[in-house]
Amino acid sequence: DSGVTQTPKHLITATGQRVTLRCSPRSGDLSVYWYQQSLDQGLQFLIQYYNGEERAKGNILERFSAQQFPDLHSELNLSSLELGDSALYFCASSGSGAFQETQYFGPGTRLLVL
Amino acid sequence: KNQVEQSPQSLIILEGKNCTLQCNYTVSPFSNLRWYKQDTGRGPVSLTIMTFSENTKSNGRYTATLDADTKQSSLHITASQLSDSASYICVVNSGTYKYIFGTGTRLKVLA
User: Fold this and answer.
1) Which residues make Cβ contacts (< 8 Å) with residue B40, sequence separation at least 6?
2) Contact call for B102 and A42, based on CB within 8 A
3) Which of B43, B45, B97 minimises the CB distance to A56?
4) Whole-angstrom Cα distance, residue B32 to residue B54?
5) Maximal C-alpha separation, chain A
6) Would the pLDDT of A99 be above 80?
7) pLDDT digits (tens, 9 = 90+) for B29-44
8) Is-contact B111 B13, C-beta < 8 A?
């Protein structure tokens, strides 16, 4: 158990809908990362937050957005969902978000778009 | 183009044997290289993180090497166990808070 929690574990929805994925980092960690893992593209970095502020953006679509709240939990919002958005979405956390820090991954949310 | 390539794609070995997984990258600039172990359907677990100046780093039976000149890394697993069956993913950080993932090597350890 990494100490990172993600909810829900599974999510089934229809195309065009909007969903919100939630992540709680390990106690004391200030930085949160979001990743997408699909069968055809593998793991991809989406976005990183540090203490409520966006720090880095990866391959995140414009239909996706995220935020980190004052209590440090984070939410990833996916809108206008398409079939291709079906994937595992992981959240990870680290202490300060420095380059060499170990990131601890949560168990993931499995999203299925029908 | 920043890329991370891993080989082999899959590997089957007998319990107790050693194996080596390869990672070649073309990422520039380079900040660090990570190896993760990912069990099916679960989140990746960090094995090692190496910066430019580090050649070798160990974590139990896992030893990673890095040759920054040739842009190659390897992960050596010693005395494999059934629990080593997983995907092993190489990730390169380019120093701009971005992470480029390899497609992974799927390892199966047989009794």
Assistant:
1) B86, B87
2) yes
3) B97
4) 9
5) 39
6) no
7) 888 999 999 999 899 9
8) no
Contact yes or no for A23/A4 (Cβ under 8 A): yes
Q: Any CB–CB contact under 8 A between B44 and chain A?
A: yes
pLDDT (tens digit per residue) in A20-70: 999 999 999 999 999 999 987 789 999 999 999 999 998 899 999 999 999
Six-digit token pair at A96?
A: 């300060």
Placement of tokens 């993600």 in the chain: A6
Cβ-defined contact of B31 to A97 (cutoff 8 Å): no
Which tens digits make up the pLDDT trace of B59-79?
A: 999 999 999 999 999 999 999
Which residues of A touch chain B, with CB atoms under 8 Å apart?
2, 4, 42-45, 48, 55-56, 58, 88, 90, 92, 97, 99-100, 102-108, 110
**Which amino acid would we find at residue B13?**
I
Residue written as token pair 């299925």: A112
